[in-house]
Amino acid sequence: MALVVQKYGGSSVATPEQIRDLARRIVARHEAGDQVVVVVSAMGKSTDALVRQAHELAEHPDPREMDMLVSAGERISIAMMSIAISGLRPGLAVSFTGSQIGLITDCNHGDARVLEIRGDRLRQALDEGRIAVVAGFQGVSTAREITTLGRGGSDTTAVAVAAALQADVCEIYSDVDGVYTTDPRLAPSARRLDTVDYETMLEMSAAGAKVLKDDAVEYARRLGVRIAAGSSSSGRIGTIVSSENLNRETLQSMVYYDRLRWIAFGAGVPLPPDCRLCQSVEGRTVVVVDEKHAAAMEGVPCVSLSLIGSRVAAQRERVDAVLGMLEEAGNRVLAISSTASKYEIFLEDPLPQPLVAAIHDALFTAGGQ
Ligand code: ADP
Ligand code: ASP
Ligand code: MG
């Protein structure tokens, strides 16, 4: 018997029909003998809709009230999922909000960090032979306010719950069947990776690969939680994220991210946290930050193309091929940053999808690799 934490994202629980289908699969897993905790996100794009509506009411909504608002989305889906499961086996499921499972965070509304989970209610539900359905993305702060964990934060909830319960695995299901060499929506020939180590996955997530949230991967690495990423429609697991890496390729993935801002600061002005790049240019400090950390309209938009893998910068032929393709497309390189495991190119203009696909294919398909 295994203890499994399963997370289903918004696109997987967008309709009552999807919830009903998943409920069947979850009950079957329970009947096969596993203890199951299910973490769910808000239905479809309902979090986006709530954020939009709040901005129709006020230009700068209060962060505490925003958390109160957006956390409601997950509350709806846990009740729906629990009703669907108990509709199949009366009384089998019980739903919990973040605060009910004692998911304690710091006080940073909208992007709170998990401090601890007092998992006794979860353990009790499992000991009673029930399926626990937990609201992702939310917690309660040390000041007893409702908080949220940043967009995509249900992944973080799932990993934190898995760590607290010492689960055998944390299964994260979405509309893709695993982690690919790049976003398969951008490059149709992207290849699924059977295994990814925590460091590589963390670099990918931090560079903008939304398939797993960076905080969740960081938590998994720190607490040794094995993540299995798979498809919610087939239930198939495609990728295992753990400390092992069976992938021998030097270049493991490419991440294209187009929601960045390039901002120049005068001397002495405090810099924002979470900079993707920070360098000094003619007496000014230039930073690249995610647009979610930039004030409205601050700086100019820019994009990044990140090549991830050990000693990737030393792969001169590949790097030069990418730079050549960008130059040919007339896209100005603003900056390049290179570490032992990542080579990042910051560019002025967004890349058209066919160019992203062509760069991926030059790097990863026969001849490129
Ligand atoms: P959920 O709503 O279930 O949390 P997300 O939308 O957050 O799912 O993450 C899944 C999406 O991540 C996919 O639809 C895919 O477009 C995107 N994605 C980005 N990079 C990758 C990658 N390297 N491998 C797989 N999917 C990726
Ligand atoms: N519902 C939240 C969001 O849209 C959390 C999540 O999906 O993981 O960001
Ligand atoms: Mg997500």
Helix content: 25-40%
* CATH homologous superfamily designation of the largest domain: Acetylglutamate kinase-like
Number of strands: 18
| Largest β sheet strand count, sense and barrel closure | 8 strands, mixed
Q: Regarding CATH, which class of the largest domain?
A: Alpha Beta
Bound molecules: adenosine-5'-diphosphate, aspartic acid, magnesium ion
Proportion of residues in extended strands: 25-35%
Order of helices and strands: EHEHHEEEHEEEHEEHHEEEEEEHEEH
Apparent shape: globular
Folded structure, characterized:
The chain has about 375 residues and is of the alpha/beta class. The protein folds into 2 domains: about 5-175, Carbamate kinase, CATH 3.40.1160; about 255-365, VC0802-like. The chain is built from 9 helices and 18 strands. The protein has helices spanning about 15-30, 45-55, 65-90, 120-125, 155-165, 200-205, 215-225, 315-330, 355-365; strands at about 5-10, 35-40, 95, 105, 115, 130-135, 140, 145-150, 170-175, 195, 225-230, 235-240, 255-265, 275-280, 285-290, 300-310, 335-340, 340-345. The strands form 3 sheets. Strands 3-6-2-1-9-11-12-10 form an 8-stranded mixed β-sheet, with helices on both faces. Strands 14-15-13-16-18-17 form a 6-stranded antiparallel β-sheet. Strand 11 (about 225-230) and strand 12 form a beta hairpin. Helix 1 (about 15-30) packs across helix 3, helix 5 packs parallel to helix 7 (about 215-225) and helix 8 packs antiparallel against helix 9. It is globular and about 65 Å long. The mean pLDDT is about 95. Adenosine-5'-diphosphate (ADP) binds next to loops.
